[in-house]
Design brief:
about 15% strand, two-stranded antiparallel sheet, alpha/beta, about 260 residues
């Protein structure tokens, strides 16, 4: 359903905050998640082959919700968390992310994580990787009334950061992230290095597409340097719901790509 003119975002202002998804965007955790899911299935269900590929089609979603969608026992959640914690030593930061967070903090931007994990699991993981001090807030799916793709978790992150929707962007690698961002009135930025199928992610209609973490920097210039593109005078698209296009180079080898208007 397309919103009316009153629902369109103003993308011409200075970006003051970034909300990040966690898994696939900041950390490389898919291998651990797949193994933990298979082990939990074997422990609780026992028979047959674990539907790992079906599980992986729901990145960014809260685990209890995914289990319900797949018709699997809710009792799998406990073993999944246990095995995920046991294997957490194999999770690593995505290349370039630690440097990105450091630069954004140096520019004075507020940084939050809005994740499909529980808040405790997310903070424990980031703490173990030494990344927790690099962000201001972490919001878990269990800390809001409704998880992604509802906008609640993004709105909570904005509230904690003290910014308006028009002053923030969300970087995610799953359709649920992008839907949540747009429902909250935040610019939806797709991370192509994440865990979703590229075509599925692009079909979700991101406002901006990035090939690598460092490509976020031109969208978040230091305060006082001008427009979101970093070029003084670059205006938002007149229809109000997309940023004006950049140059013609395209991901994954080029700079940030603004999706076609329309």
């Amino acid at each position: 359903m397309t919103g009316g003119a009153g629902d369109r975002r103003d993308t011409s202002g200075q970006v003051r905050a970034v909300v990040f998804d966690l898994d696939g965007v900041l950390v490389d955790s898919l291998g651990v998640a797949r193994e933990a899911f298979a082990l939990a299935y074997a422990e609780v269900v026992g028979d047959g082959v674990a539907p790992v590929e079906e599980y992986c089609r729901h990145p960014g979603r809260y685990l209890p919700e995914v289990l319900e969608l797949l018709g699997l026992p809710a009792a799998m959640a406990g073993p999944f968390v246990r095995e995920s914690n046991r294997l957490a030593y194999r999770v690593t930061p995505v290349d370039g992310v630690v440097e990105l967070l450091g630069v954004l903090r140096g520019r004075g931007l507020g940084l939050a994580v809005a994740t499909g994990r529980s808040g405790t699991r997310a903070r424990d993981l980031l703490g173990g990787l030494g990344m927790l001090p690099l962000v201001d807030h972490v919001v878990g799916a269990d800390e809001v009334p409704r998880p992604k793709p509802a906008p609640d978790i993004v709105r909570r992150a904005l509230e904690l950061l003290g910014v308006c929707p028009g002053e923030a962007v969300l970087l995610g690698d799953a359709p649920a992230d992008l839907v949540s961002a747009r429902a909250a009135g935040v610019v939806a930025v797709a991370a192509l290095w994440g865990e979703s199928d590229r075509e599925v992610l692009l079909a979700a209609g991101p406002d901006v597409v990035l090939a690598r973490p460092a490509d976020l920097l031109p969208l978040c210039p230091p305060p006082g340097s001008g427009s979101p593109s970093g070029r003084p005078g670059a205006a938002a698209d007149t229809r109000g719901d997309r940023w004006a296009p950049l140059s013609g180079r395209s991901a994954p080898d080029g700079p940030p790509v603004r999706q076609p208007m329309g």
